[in-house]
Design a protein that fits this description.
Distance between the termini: 27 Å
Strand content: 35-45%
Number of helices: 1
Strand order of the largest sheet: 3-5-7-10
Oligomer: single chain
């Protein structure tokens, strides 16, 4: 059975018999992903985003969409942040210290606007 990934966190589920003698590397990465999902605080630098940023959760890779707490920083204008993939269920605690208002969306459904200097809890329902 080939490896698969969890739907919301991108954690690799090693297939039976896969990665003989090297599964420890994947397991350690998975623990890093779990740590980021549960308690991770990440600064999202918006200075080079041209007013748009994609907050990605990429299977088997430490990515910015995995942080539990997002600190928005460095925007040069009002910005939009899109959660990808758009079918993952996530909860984010967002601190907007970017200098501008930011809007978070997941494709369909309501968008959430976070004025500069404010904090919000975002539930992305996939």
């Amino acid at each position: 059975m080939a490896s698969t990934y969890t739907s919301n966190g991108g954690i690799e589920k090693i297939g039976i018999g896969d990665q003989a003698n090297s599964w420890g590397t994947t397991t350690n990465l998975n623990f890093d992903i779990i740590d980021r999902l549960i308690n991770g605080v990440g600064t999202i630098d918006l200075s080079s985003s041209a007013a748009a940023h994609t907050l990605s959760t990429t299977d088997g890779t430490l990515s910015d969409g995995m942080y539990k707490v997002l600190v928005l920083d460095g925007a040069t204008e009002d910005c939009s942040i899109t959660i990808s993939p758009n079918n993952a269920q996530k909860v984010y605690f967002v601190v907007n210290s970017s200098g501008f208002d930011c809007t978070i969306s997941q494709g369909t459904g309501a968008n959430v606007s976070i004025p500069n200097g404010e904090k919000k809890i975002i539930y992305a329902d996939g």
